From TrEMBL:
Family (UniProt): Belongs to the TrkH potassium transport family.
Keyword tags: Cell inner membrane, Cell membrane, Ion transport, Membrane, Metal-binding, Potassium, Potassium transport, Transmembrane, Transmembrane helix, Transport
Membrane topology: Multi-pass membrane protein
Binding residues for K(+): T116, T117, G237, T330, T331, N448, V449
InterPro entries: Cat_transpt, TrkH
Protein name: Trk system potassium uptake protein TrkH
Transmembrane residue ranges: 12-34, 40-62, 74-96, 153-180, 201-224, 256-276, 288-308, 341-360, 405-427, 471-496
Gene Ontology MF term list: metal ion binding; potassium:chloride symporter activity
A single Gene Ontology CC term: plasma membrane
Broad class of where this protein is predominantly found: membrane
Length: 499
């Protein structure tokens, strides 16, 4: 009897485990419901029960699986379907409570959470949205807002574990950009064993979340606001409990704290580990971190100059710094609306939707290391034209980059732009938005940023989109979060065909 192409039993077994974990984390919102008496106890208990029962059923039904049967195809399918399953079950509290009654809206909000995108359908004027469902963020129950923040924190942690623990086993090229395996990095690793590496990164992630919570408490926020924003900052997610995002606090100290932690969350977590171990050399020699820091400083100076109106210099710099760090790290918080600063500034922020911060961080986007390699490869090509017989390598961190990394880079950039183009065509085709809004919605979804242009700017909402566009953007968020290749490959006929 021929061997099956894909062992669905082992795929369902692992997905069952993910669903159970999702349900357990969902139950953490119940204490908030009890404390605030917000009427969400029954919806969360029901959602938790359904999620747990489905997960247990899959585990029991597939208990005869064998771990060694997880091959590359199973691994790709587990990653793609696992995240999709978490989003499907994660939207149950919205639906069951009636806070977001439509499946398209609830799934969009949940996928935006798990992928740490931060785009939302909440808020806006019903008259301007053609009667579409709309609900203010501040109108949602406290425990539901906590779960909304929690989805982003799970997504932020999940992408780290995915990068460290799953992608190497699958041989996915995107992993090669992680600093321990990156082209031309130091040979030092956090730990030679993947499990120990993942454990250390979890500790860093948890520690940053706790530290920010404490820092925000000292800035005058209560525990509820502090924990929510710590969850969505360190995941570079950007969901806030305020309708006007961080601007709603009107507290410069809060803004500075969040800027610091957004910047750290956009830094390669391996470098943070090296910093804690006082291995300054690895940080000083890391090209990506240098470009990341220069981009933040340079863009902040440029933006401060462009938006300065004769008022407080400190406030101008703080406003510029906050928006630059928020967008480049794909967090999506806002203390001001860049759409009000003119077309040049809007163009700058549109381009930043593609960037992202560091590989090995919780940010989305193309990642700075890919942009750096693309620039360096372009410059080397000029030299090769003048000296066709010379062997001129592309260097990163003072070490040559293997050709397969360059090929993977070019393939990734092509796929990224191809998906952006197709997505823009589809969202424009389904209507309801202007062209510039459509392309910004696609760019911010694939890049997992959150805000875009037009009605999707930092003050806007995605509620007016037709349902078809919401499903398309939800898929693009997932593709962007999983480095494109994972989901794209599963969607090809080649993946399902025996060679």
């Amino acid at each position: 009897m021929p061997k099956r192409l894909i062992n669905f039993r082992v795929v369902l077994h692992v997905i069952g485990s993910l669903i159970i974990i999702n349900g357990v984390l969902m139950s953490l919102a119940i204490p908030f419901s009890l404390y605030y008496k917000d009427g969400m106890l029954l919806p969360f208990a029901t959602s938790f029960s359904i999620t747990l029962l489905v997960g247990l059923f899959l585990r029991i039904y597939t208990r005869e699986h064998k771990n060694d049967e997880i091959k590359k195809r199973e691994g790709f399918l587990i990653v793609a379907m696992g995240w999709l399953s978490m989003a499907l079950f994660g939207c149950l509290p919205y639906l069951i409570s009636g806070s977001i009654p439509h499946i398209s809206d609830a799934f969009f909000e949940t996928m935006s959470g798990f992928t740490t995108t931060g785009a939302t359908i909440l808020g806006g004027d019903p008259a301007e949205l053609g009667g579409n469902f709309v609900n203010k963020i501040s109108h949602l129950p406290e425990s539901l807002l906590f779960w909304r923040s929690m989805t982003q924190w799970i997504g932020g942690m999940g992408i780290i574990v995915l990068t460290v623990a799953i992608l190497p086993m699958l041989g996915i090229g995107g992993m090669e950009l992680f600093v321990a395996e990156a082209p031309g990095p130091t040979k030092d690793k956090i730990h030679p064993r993947i499990k120990e590496t993942a454990k250390r990164l979890w500790v860093i992630y948890l520690s940053l979340t706790l530290l920010e919570t404490i820092a925000l408490l000292f800035c005058g926020l209560d525990f509820y606001e502090s924990i929510n924003h710590a969850l969505t900052t360190n995941s570079t997610g950007g969901f806030s409990t305020q309708d006007s995002s961080i601007a709603g606090f009107g507290n410069p100290a809060v803004e500075y704290v969040i800027v610091i932690f957004m910047f750290l969350a956009g830094t390669n977590f391996t470098l943070i580990y090296f910093a804690l171990k006082r291995k300054v050399f690895q940080i000083r020699e890391n090209d990506e971190f240098k470009w990341y820091l220069m981009a933040v400083v340079g863009l902040t100076v440029l933006l401060s100059f462009l938006i300065y109106n004769g008022e407080s210099i400190e406030e101008t710099i703080r406003t510029a710094l906050f928006q630059v760090v928020s967008i480049i790290t794909t967090t999506g918080y806002a203390t001001a609306n860049y759409s009000n600063w003119g077309p040049l500034v809007m163009l700058i922020f549109f381009l930043l939707l593609f960037s992202g911060a560091s590989a090995g961080s919780t940010s989305g986007g193309i990642k700075i290391v890919r942009i750096v390699l693309l620039i360096k490869n372009g410059l080397v090509e000029f030299k090769r034209r003048l000296h066709p017989k010379a062997v001129i390598p592309v260097n990163l961190n003072k070490k040559p980059v293997p050709n397969n990394i360059i090929y993977n880079l070019l393939a990734f950039i092509f796929l990224y732009l191809f998906i952006f183009t197709i997505g823009s065509i589809l969202v424009t085709m389904f209507g309801g938005v202007e062209f510039e809004e459509a392309i910004s919605a696609v760019a911010t979804s694939v890049g997992n940023v959150g805000p875009g242009l037009g009605d999707f700017d930092p003050d806007g909402t995605f509620a007016k989109l037709p349902d078809a566009s919401k499903w398309i953007l939800s898929l693009l968020m997932l593709m962007g979060r999983l480095e494109l290749f994972t989901v794209a490959l599963v969607m090809t006929p080649y993946f399902w065909r025996r060679i």
